[in-house]
């Protein structure tokens, strides 16, 4: 069982930056494929980015070039650096841990990101 706790959300003006963090419990963090999702009101939850156990990353087209995902296995933490934020990035952001690249088996509680125009 893995417990995930996100932090770092808040209110920012368009063009600004935020860094989200997700800390995982347990001693096997390095073995999990980590993802960031977001869900805006009235919308389905969507994948934002992911980072595999080997460190390779992937991004949704909407955030490519603006967001950067990284992980620090020594700190059991995954990060989402969000730059050049847009109002359409407003959502609750969730991190998820998966036993496989295609799975999201454990979820955090989410952190709100609001981007004002």
Summary, kept brief:
The protein has 117 residues and is mostly beta strands. The protein has no helices and eleven strands.
Mean pLDDT: 96
String of helices and strands: EEEEEEEEEEE
Output the number of helix runs: 0
User: Which structural class best describes the helix and strand composition?
Assistant: mainly beta
State the helical fraction. Answer: under 10%
Uncertain regions: pLDDT < 50 for 5+ in a row? Answer: none
Can you lay out the helices and strands and say which pair or pack?
Elements: E1 4-7, E2 10-13, E3 18-24, E4 33-39, E5 46-51, E6 57-59, E7 67-72, E8 77-82, E9 91-98, E10 106-107, E11 111-116
Parallel strand pairs: 2-11
Antiparallel strand pairs: 1-3, 3-8, 4-5, 4-9, 5-6, 7-8, 9-10, 9-11
Walk me through what this model shows.
By secondary structure, this protein is mostly beta strands. It is built from no helices and 11 strands. Strand 4 and strand 5 (46-51) form a beta hairpin. It starts with a strand and ends with a strand.
């Amino acid at each position: 069982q893995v417990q995930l706790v996100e932090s770092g959300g808040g209110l920012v003006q368009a063009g600004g930056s935020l860094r989200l963090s997700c800390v995982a419990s347990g001693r096997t963090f390095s073995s999990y494929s980590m993802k960031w999702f977001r869900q805006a009101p009235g919308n389905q939850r969507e994948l934002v980015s992911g980072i595999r156990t080997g460190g390779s990353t992937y991004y949704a087209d909407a955030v490519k070039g603006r967001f950067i995902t990284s992980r620090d296995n020594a700190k059991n933490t995954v990060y989402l650096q969000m730059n050049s934020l847009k109002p359409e990035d407003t959502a609750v952001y969730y991190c998820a841990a998966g036993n496989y690249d295609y799975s999201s088996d454990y979820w955090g509680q989410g952190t709100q990101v609001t981007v004002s125009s």
